[in-house]
Inverse folding.
């Protein structure tokens, strides 16, 4: 039997996907044992994990590009979860980083409008996970800033206000949220979770993957393993098992 | 402006993809600093790297499922490369592992028919990369077999014949090939490239990623970085930059 004919007999498989939407902490999610790679490994044979991370972006820009990334067609059916992970740039200090800074109130409005957009393409709130920015280790990040000839352009307490607003949006909209800012500071020194005071270290990435998994697990629990386990294939008549 | 309206103004972005099609060595490609994760990281903002690895599968089963994984619609436009990486199971010894074994001649025919199928959906030979099975470290793999109550069910010399057939198919069909079996044994002890005598260790995975990259690089060199670098966004009027 020609392969094209075989393909016509078996339906094209719809491969579901998890979309990771965010800034540089998402764009780097497949680096060095990253949280994106960890999720992709856990979800292999169930769905793809696709990276829609944009270094340096804030929610003002993110809400503009979101409809260019996720459209109406087949979205709801194939997208099992979307993470929205911004705030590290929005919370940059206005005076020192006006390009990336987004006022606190607007940050919350932008998050709400992204959730609203996703719902309009049938990605319901139960499929959405907000992630707050991680805490900022000011001394380490200051070194990065100084190396570029800049002053410290973010404050941990300010980032904390954005994290709180993110949690409130999640509560109001009925989505899940991983409050990384709070979780990473809970009864522990959070410095080892960060590589440069702002981005995640391998340990921080593992921490996020574990926290995310507890939200994702219930969203993916009904997904079947795609195509049979090899020991279950009828090797005398494989097409019966595979088409 | 409502987000749905913004989406209508900017076109939905077609996100290209690299498809990794293979057996368990592909299915594990996002584990522990794996070769799939390394490629996904290198190709971030350019294309997705999706895992179509099926542990235990051989080319007889792979050719049946391929049309269920890659269909005609938009394939050529969105798929920039496909790796086909089988042989570790095909080359299992017939007497000791009849379920996974595929005769040498049929293995070559199956590879050819998969290339033929991809061409029929406009994924031309210049987008296809064959990968030969890695060498087998018999003593380590024998331990795995014995632990399951089996005898050693593969031989490195036999796997080498399959690797040679794979290289010949690539030559005949005009596709690229990464001859892992030969490269890993070239002037070096290959044991550190394997975790259990058959699957790749982190070092072996890095080796494969580096070898693959030299083939992939030219296939992806013309891909643009998707959406502008953040410093290039006009922050006074971001929609001009982003839509």
């Amino acid at each position: 039997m020609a392969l094209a004919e075989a393909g016509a007999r078996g339906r094209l498989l719809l491969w579901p996907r998890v979309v990771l939407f965010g800034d540089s902490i998402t764009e780097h999610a497949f680096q060095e044992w990253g949280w994106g790679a960890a999720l992709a490994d856990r979800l292999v044979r169930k769905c793809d994990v696709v990276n829609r991370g944009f270094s340096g972006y804030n929610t003002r820009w993110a809400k503009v590009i979101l409809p260019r990334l996720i459209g109406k067609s087949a979205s709801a059916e194939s997208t099992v979860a979307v993470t929205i992970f911004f705030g590290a740039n929005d919370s940059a200090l206005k005076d020192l980083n006006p390009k990336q800074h987004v006022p606190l109130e607007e940050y919350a409005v932008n998050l709400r409008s992204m959730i609203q957009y996703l719902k309009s393409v049938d990605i319901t709130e139960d499929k959405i996970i907000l992630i707050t920015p991680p805490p900022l280790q000011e001394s380490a990040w200051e070194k990065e800033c100084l190396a570029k000839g800049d002053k410290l352009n973010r404050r941990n307490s300010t980032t904390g206000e954005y994290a709180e607003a993110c949690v409130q949006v999640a509560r109001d909209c009925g989505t899940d949220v991983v409050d990384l800012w709070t979780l990473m500071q809970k009864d522990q020194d959070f410095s080892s979770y960060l590589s440069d005071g702002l981005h995640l270290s391998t340990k921080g990435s593992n921490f996020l993957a574990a926290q995310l998994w507890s939200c994702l697990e219930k969203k993916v629990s009904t997904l079947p393993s795609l195509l049979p386990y090899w020991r279950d294939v009828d090797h005398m008549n494989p097409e019966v098992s595979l088409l």
Observations:
- The CA atoms of residues 137 and 189 of chain A lie 10 Å apart.
- The two ends of chain A are 13 Å apart (CA to CA).
- Chain A touches chain B through 60 residues (CB under 8 Å).
- Residues 202-220 of chain A form the longest helix (19 residues).
